Automatic annotation (TrEMBL):
Its EC number is 2.4.2.17. Pathway: Amino-acid biosynthesis; L-histidine biosynthesis; L-histidine from 5-phospho-alpha-D-ribose 1-diphosphate: step 1/9. It holds the Pfam family HisG. It catalyses: 1-(5-phospho-beta-D-ribosyl)-ATP + diphosphate = 5-phospho-alpha-D-ribose 1-diphosphate + ATP. GO terms for molecular function: ATP phosphoribosyltransferase activity; magnesium ion binding. The keyword Amino-acid biosynthesis applies. NCBIfam families: hisG, HisG_C-term. Gene3D superfamilies: 3.30.70.120, Periplasmic binding protein-like II (3.40.190.10). One of its GO terms (biological process) is L-histidine biosynthetic process. Keywords: Amino-acid biosynthesis, Glycosyltransferase, Histidine biosynthesis, Transferase. Residues 237-316 form the Histidine biosynthesis HisG C-terminal domain. Coiled coil: none annotated. This is ATP phosphoribosyltransferase.
Amino acid sequence: MLNQSPPVARISLPSKGRLAEDSLAFLQACGLTVYKPNPRQYEAVIPTLPGLKVLFQRPADIVVSVRNGSVDFGISGMDVIEERRGSNGDVLVLHDALGYGGCSLAFAVPEEWDDVTRMNDLVARAARLGRPLGVATKYPILAGRRLEKYALPYTLISAEGTLETAPAIGYADLICDVVSSGQTLRDNHLRLLEDGVILQSQASLIANRGSLQTRPQALEMARVLLEYFEAHLRASGNLSVYANIRGQSPETVAQQIFTHCNIRGLQGPTISRVIVAEGEQCWYDANLIVPRDQLFTTIQGLRAAGGSGVVVLPVTYIFDEEPPRYKAMLAALAKED
Ligand SMILES: Nc1ncnc2c1ncn2[C@@H]1O[C@H](COP(=O)(O)OP(=O)(O)OP(=O)(O)O)[C@@H](O)[C@H]1O
Ligand SMILES: O=P(O)(O)OC[C@H]1O[C@H](OP(=O)(O)OP(=O)(O)O)[C@H](O)[C@@H]1O
Ligand SMILES: [Mg+2]
């Protein structure tokens, strides 16, 4: 079912590479499932957001499209964003931590370069070779900016596909590329330099500044996207725990929880009376929002507080009063008007 309402804004999503599938999974987890009628088409819709048209592009092209305003929003890796965003401020970062696509952009050298463990060691290496070092990279701006900090003759060699084979094949001396597990480096007998990391990257949401400044509907779409993203990300680390606890009053049950549990929920436990038959003991139902990694200690605490029948449910969203990143976006828009 394709939604027929005219779009008010456009977003570009990664069409290939590791970010492609993970972006669709992230949006789905946010409640914004992308519906693509034909796998070969480059357009799609998000039925939850009828005003938003979805396009698919290569991660690097997404940044260029957002920069020149041909799309309003994009999701790409922060490494690619920093490489392509330019310096005129047209690309606004709305969210820099979507929680997937994590990797580092870093320099790596052949394992057998025993005399090179830090960036500065490259200077002596180049002197010994008597020629500039060839650095293979898909990030010439970021790599070049870092190399400029050293008194080092170098040539940037742009390459497509797998860069890690470049030193072995012989068309570069070292590489500057993304690393996550490090497996590709190890497989190709390369080693990271100790101070060779340029930046930590993960999937991020960007927008065209002009779109947000001149089109209220695009600005409203930014708010809606940030609401969903932030509420989902805040919720995903938490679980909702319900326990039945015997007690005299809501206050005494709360006191039992405070005595035995480190966790008190978002504001404090919510405690409601369980309706029982006349003459039976008083029971209360306590609800706590608990970080996933503290679930077990919380359950132990609730048991110690007299709790039983503990039920644990996932939390879909936690909405704040207003998404902090939306406020930050408004401030950034106001600053450079
Ligand atoms: N191993 C990885 N783990 C996490 N994210 C990664 C990994 N490799 C690449 N990425 C992310 O994917 C994005 C690059 O996407 P992609 O792999 O499609 O492009 P590319 O391979 O650099 O370019 P090309 O279009 O030339 O293949 C970057 O933002 C990068 O951070
Ligand atoms: O440290 P690792 O976990 O080994 O990840 C790093 C590798 O991941 C990326 O390639 P990808 O597999 O996405 O293929 P690509 O070369 O087509 O981009 C990147 O270009 C590295 O080669
Ligand atoms: Mg890649």
